[in-house]
Structure formats: C-alpha cells, structure tokens
Design goal:
11 strands; 2 domains; Alpha-Beta Plaits; 7 helices; 222 residues; seven-stranded mixed sheet; alpha+beta; Aminopeptidase; four-stranded mixed sheet
C-alpha cells in the first residue's frame, strides 16, 4: 500500500519577517498568506525563491512554484526578424529613467483570463520603495519620445527576478528582454527568474527547472 500523501497546510504570516521553507508550498506553488509588502519582507522573499501574487481584494499570497521558469542569459533566443529590429533604429533603450511609468504601464496590461491587475496600488508603492533602495530596476523602450515598452524586476546581484513587462507596439518588450539578457550575460549573472511558464518566455529561450535546482542556484555564492 502506498503511503497517503500529506496535505500541505497554508501558512499564515504574522508581523515577524520570516517565511516557511519552500517545500511547504502546495502543488500550485502557494506557500503562505498574509504579512505585508515591506522592503525587508519582499527582499527576504526573493532571496529565498518566493514572490507575491494576489488579486486586489484578497490577502497577500506568496508563491514558490515547482518547476520554476528561468532563462540562462547566454541562452536567449533571437529570431531573424528580431535581429533586424535590434539592428535597426526603431527603438532606443534606457534604464531606470521612469520606473513608476513602467510599473503603471505593466499594471494596465490586459491579460487573457485575468480580471484586473495583480500590480495593485499597494504593490506599486512597495516596488517603488525597493527601487529607491536600489533593488528594483526598470528597462524602458522608446520610439522617438514615446514610452512603448519595458520591464521591471528585482536585482539580487547574481539573479534578476523578472516581475512584469509591457508592450504598446510589436516587439518592444522583446527588445527590452533581449537587452536585459545580454547585459546580464556580460555581468556573469546566473539566471533570470521568470517564475511561471508562458509560451512567450519559452520562445525567448526560457525553460522550466526543478525548484530545488533553482534554489541551489539562487543560494550559490558568486
């Protein structure tokens, strides 16, 4: 007889800045609920392979899915058509020039099967605080003087935790993502954390790896 599978119990956070071990997450990757969005708690989360994701009317939910979607910077896939875009003067790139605008643009993106946005006003404020402390970074894509695409994420120094991206014109977010990957490859970053599988990310070279492998790379000294 096979042993009965143990049910994971959702952990409710209190005022202490802590998280349970990621192995306690359920099959969907949900690890804990509650707590706050302080810079200290957010940084501890990312350093341990955990991220917040929740609707505006729910408790803060913390996730650590298995498997984990990642991109090794040197494995970025660039199509022939995208190479033409990169070699043209269609877009220009900047970094950390309008972080708040990128946040708001990402929050405004309508996504299939999703009501509203998980990038709530409180989330935006939390990431703005991380940006002010030097941990949250944005990449902006411009067409002439108009912001047409970009992305933002948390920079841990050896791993970049991608949070969201947006594109108002075709290929703008890809332009930002490819430049991010190339920059991180030059800086010898281990990987870009893409969190969850999407076909879009897979087309750019991202792949799923076991959570244990992801945590080991995250904890590895560089």
């Amino acid at each position: 007889m096979k042993p009965e599978k143990q049910q994971n119990t959702l952990h409710f956070l209190d005022d202490r800045i802590h998280f349970p071990e990621v192995e306690n997450a359920n099959e969907e990757g949900l690890l804990a609920a509650g707590g706050d969005l302080s810079s200290e708690r957010l940084l501890l989360a990312y350093q341990n392979g955990i991220f917040p994701w929740f609707n505006e009317d729910s408790l803060i939910l913390w996730w650590s899915p298995d498997p984990r979607m990642v991109l090794y910077p040197k494995e970025i896939k660039i199509s022939k058509s995208m190479r033409k875009v990169l070699n043209s003067n269609q877009f220009t790139l900047s970094k950390n020039t309008c972080f708040e605008q990128v946040l708001q643009a990402c929050a405004g993106v309508k996504r299939d099967g999703q009501q509203g946005t998980w990038i709530t006003a409180d989330m935006q404020q939390a990431y703005l605080h991380l940006h002010e402390k030097g941990f949250a970074t944005s990449y902006e894509v411009w067409q002439e003087d108009e912001l047409v695409g970009g992305l933002y994420g948390i920079d841990l120094g050896h791993v970049f935790c991608g949070e969201s991206m947006f594109s108002k014109v075709s290929n703008a977010s890809k332009f930002a993502f490819i430049h991010l990957a190339k920059e991180l490859e030059e800086k010898k970053y281990t990987l870009i954390d893409c969190q969850l599988h999407t076909n879009h990310l897979a087309s750019l070279g991202a792949e799923e790896i076991p959570r244990d492998d992801f945590i080991a790379l995250l904890k590895k000294d560089n």
